[in-house]
Write a structure and sequence with these properties.
Helix content of chain A: 25-40%
InterPro entries (chains A, B): Asparaginase_II (IPR010349)
CATH architecture of chain A: 3-Layer(aba) Sandwich
Pfam families (chains A, B): Asparaginase_II
Structural class of chain A: alpha+beta
CATH topology of chain A: Beta-lactamase
Largest sheet of chain A: 8 strands, antiparallel
Oligomer: homodimer
CATH class of chain A: Alpha Beta
Number of strands of chain A: 11
Number of domains of chain A: 1
Protein name (chains A, B): Asparaginase
Chain lengths: 336, 336
């Protein structure tokens, strides 16, 4: 029987709490045991982009990363929901160049960069966004690299039946412990399959990603390469003014985090053998980072200085059009 | 003892419900009796811009509307969170002209128009937004009209102590039946005081707004003038591609509706003597219109043709960057 969601974050305005954001949190070890929780730790939802670090594994395991000489920055970009800054688009283009393809082969669609200064500058220049600016272009470039390595067609790589997607499904299944047939399949904003599984299983996959000792040698090596790349190049995983990047920087790579659309955040804490998955039930991004940072605080995984460096994500102030402070976003829950 | 929120709206993706939006609904008669509800009908929240039609009352009652010859369109704009289309900015400027002031007197701050085509065109022309484009510029022009009429200063009209704000607080109190001292005060996005009160009281105010027979003659006349203006000029209350405007058009003015930020929608159904207030607890706009339209459906206030004309608000489809349908936003609750 599933458990109800609990309020995780309050949005205040003057004397009132104006909004509540409900959600679920699972804190899990590498065996998949739930150590701490809020709401329903087994809430089933799509991992969305939080699956990307897991989806990078078969790109490495297939030999594609070595065959094409992918760098650490490029592997970090496979795991990214990036900002569309120049470093991101040029790196996506570099991966495509190494596999003999170009942005014309990307099927992710185009959108303006998440990074506002970059988007504004493009608007001012009258420059239209390309598929390289899509926040998922690194993941798509990785899917194409895998397709090329497997000798599979590069046209229909979005399809669940494509060998590249099948390898990614297998990786998510193997890492999470959820049988492939039990993983719910939807379609992502960028057109590829997305994977629905319990939060506790997503957290377990992240625990194993950061602490892969019990996995087969090839997977263990791939996990290590992904986490090393994320820790060393956090600016490629998200970018300027983004929580994922700031968290990995501030924690000096001791906490690896990746957001997913609709209120998902997954974290790996290698030295503690922990995986943590957060779902804001209504999908609100404004509640996601406060909840994730607060979970880390309660678990003793961020010290006061680190929390202070993340304060604009942990407890953001709300301002009005004139810049006056009118309220705050306040995490308010207790992990049990 | 307050009652918990209930899920009002589901967001689906493929086989899963990916997000839930919780909330509260109160359906109330002119006596303030709760006839139907979902969640906690007495949930206390800020009315935000849903208070604007009530805030227009003292502008009329003070004699300002007559003294300055405000038209029906201009009175509708006092009630608006408008799109910043040309008809809105020119009407706000016209009100200011009639009272001998200009946009330089507005203290609402500037933001790009809500209306995307208008905002895009301004960006292309390199045109910066002014206070006239602020969605609240009509309300602010009304506050200034009231200040001028009362012989009060026009500089500090944002302050709760200003006679214009005091008249507005009195109107919200009088219409809702909540004593002034029990109304929570916060600061809005546009700098003015906002009024916190139970949803049931906001709904009662809207019931009385549309059915003002029991009110004092001056207030009755003011209510009638506001509702007549909203029903006759719904495009001034919001604008192109906006639910408020579409609802009033589709219902031919038999349902008057006004949104407020952070998930508030208030409606008046004059011929049934009903007021309805909806609060999405997490503030999400994507859930607000489906919940409001569904409440009207369950109350038998919209027929099949009207619902069909509102289907893109009642049950919107979710598409990805490529335009592929990936899910839907589905109201899923039962008024009791």
């Amino acid at each position: 029987m599933s458990q109800p969601s609990v309020p995780l974050v309050r949005v205040t305005r003057g004397p009132l709490t104006e909004c509540f954001h409900h959600g679920h949190i699972a804190v899990v070890d590498t065996a998949g045991t739930v150590l701490h929780q809020a709401g329903d730790p087994h809430f089933v939802t799509f991992a969305r982009s939080a699956a990307k670090p897991l989806q990078a594994l078969p790109v490495i395991e297939s030999g594609a990363a070595d065959a094409f000489g992918l760098t650490g920055e490029e592997i970090a970009l496979l795991c990214a929901s990036h900002n569309g800054e120049e470093l991101h688009t040029s790196t996506a283009a570099a991966i495509l160049g190494k596999i003999g393809l170009s942005e014309l082969n990307l099927r992710c669609g185009a959108h303006l960069p998440f990074h506002r200064p970059t988007a504004s500058a493009m608007r001012e220049r009258g420059e239209a966004p390309t598929s390289l600016h899509n926040n998922c272009s690194g993941k798509h470039a990785g899917m194409l690299a895998l397709a090329v390595r497997l000798g599979a067609p590069t046209e229909d790589y979005l399809s669940l039946e494509h060998p590249a997607q099948q390898r990614m499904l297998e990786a998510v299944s193997g890492m999470s412990g959820v049988p492939e047939s039990s993983i719910a399949i939807g379609v992502d904003g960028c057109g590829v399959p997305v994977f629905g599984l319990p939060l506790s299983a997503l957290a377990a996959a992240y625990a194993r990603l950061g602490c892969p000792e019990s996995l087969a040698p090839q997977r263990r090596a791939a996990c290590s390469r992904v986490t090393t790349a994320m820790a060393a190049h956090p600016e490629y995983v998200a970018g300027d003014d983004r929580f994922d990047t700031r968290l990995m920087r501030v924690s000096q790579g001791r906490v690896l985090g990746k957001m997913g659309a609709e209120g998902v955040f997954a974290m790996s804490v290698p030295e503690r053998g922990l995986g943590i998955a957060v779902k804001i039930e209504d999908g609100a991004k404004r509640a996601l980072y406060p909840a994730a940072a607060e979970a880390l605080r309660q678990l003793g995984l961020l010290d006061a200085d680190q929390l202070s460096a993340l304060s604009s994500y942990h407890r953001p102030l709300q301002r009005n059009w004139q810049g006056t402070e009118v309220g705050a976003i306040v995490p308010d829950f207790r992990l049990v």
